[in-house]
Amino acid sequence: MQQNKTTDSVQATNDSQKRMNILNGKSLSKTDYIVLGGTFLLMGIGLYLIYRLQPYFEKLHFERLKSFWGAAVINFGLVLFVLQISFLLYIVYLYFRYKPVASVSDEELPTCTVIVPAYNEGRLVYDTLISLVNSDYPAEKIEIISLDDGSKDDTWNWMIKAKAELGERVTILQQEKNQGKRHALYRGFNIGKGEVFITVDSDSIVEKDTLRNLVSPFVNNEKCGAVGGNVRVLNTADGIIPKMLNVSFVFSFEFIRSAQSALGSVLCTPGALAAYRRDAVMNCLEDWITQTFMGQPSDIGEDRAMTNMILKQGFDVLFQRNAYVLTNTPEEYRTLYKMYIRWERSNVRENIAMSKFAFTKFREGSTIGPRILLLNQWLRVLMAYPLTILMLYLVVTQPVMFISSALVSIFIFSSIQVFFYSKRYNLLESFWAYPYSIFYTFTLFWITPYAIATANKKGWLTRTLPIEK
Fold it and tell me: Which pLDDT score, from 0 to 100, does residue 469 have?
């Protein structure tokens, strides 16, 4: 029996290490090379068409300038372009101002409660708990609570197994019925004793120094109310979509959130890994659990909602680039678009919530930065319908011009992500930014308009039984 426990524990650790090594080794399969090669071929064709059809495009451009609506669309497009370039330069400036906080000593580390809600995660929750216990955080200062939110699979059995092996290091609880992630976290917040709460998704693996790096900003900055971790993709070996998402995540977290952190205004602490000052959570906990949208209880976007409520109290919300967590991501189109719909619905809801306080004096010091971040969020939401309509119009009336222009634009702007990722990690893997942009432009363009129209709808959408492989 003891041998089986040891074997499973070692296997979990080895599996986690193998998955982490994926982020460093990065071999590509034959299919990967075909996809990347096809992507470069498409962009090459786009560049060729732009070059060959330049006289035709110029003629079309001048003809449109002669009409009122044609000139209006072109001029408005130029204004949008200037605004986005200006915002990008602003983010670049903020990025270079950002520095992660170094880990403090064991003596300075605060006590913390790690809360791991789980629903239909199977073996993954076991791996998550093993990685948490293997952290180099002082054992006497950490409390780990995992809650099964009424799973329909063997999640609870894996939690029992983890408890049997890890003993007093882990507390496991079971909800009587499935109530949603927010309610599981609420229970954890109420029973946790730590000075800092850490939330970790049950399909995520932390590195040994992740937790101590994550909570160190609370020690040196009394204004720090929350900290977001650096999320990378765990299952990059399991498909093309995870590989593409990994590059997208690096840009979203290590570039965008680094810039937001320089303002003390990270807009969303990720569910995969986040830390919150206890007082900040308790000040808004009842408002958070009873939050509604259009008269219905909110059952999505609990991470962005908590972030908003902590920002509203005047606290800083920071990002720790050195606090890594590896998380499972969708491997199929259907699961991916459902995740994006949930994220975008939450984005619409919480943009509205943030707008209610962002233009007040909600904290000491400058509030211009958070307002700029929010206005850029709103610009993207408000332009979703006009840009989608324009895209569909051009696809019907000028398909060659639209497709070739889109491919060239993807090459230009995705090269920013390629450059960033290659400087931080690996050149070959950075090329996944190109197929991801093509994939998003032509197959996921409808997500934001749909999410806006259905922002009041409830449901997690992706909480299903795990598929056996």
Answer: 42
Run of H or E residues at 257: none
Dump pLDDT digits (tens) for 42-79: 999 999 999 998 888 888 777 777 788 878 888 888 99
Amino acid at 30: K
Report the distance separating Cα 327 and Cα 234, nearest Å: 5
Q: How distant, in Å, are the alpha carbons of 73, 392, 407, 410, 445 from that of 442?
A: 22, 11, 10, 11, 6
Which residues are CB-neighbours of 159 under 8 A, at least 6 positions away? 118, 125, 126, 129, 146, 148, 172
Domain boundaries, the chain: 1-52+98-469
128 contacts 160 by C-beta, under 8 angstroms: no
Mean pLDDT over the full length of the chain: 92
Neighbouring CB atoms inside 10 A of 28's CB total: 15
**Composition of the chain by helix, strand, coil, percent to 5:** 60, 15, 25
**CATH number of the domain located at residue range(s) 1-52+98-469 in this protein:** 3.90.550.10
Q: What is the pTM of this model?
A: 0.90
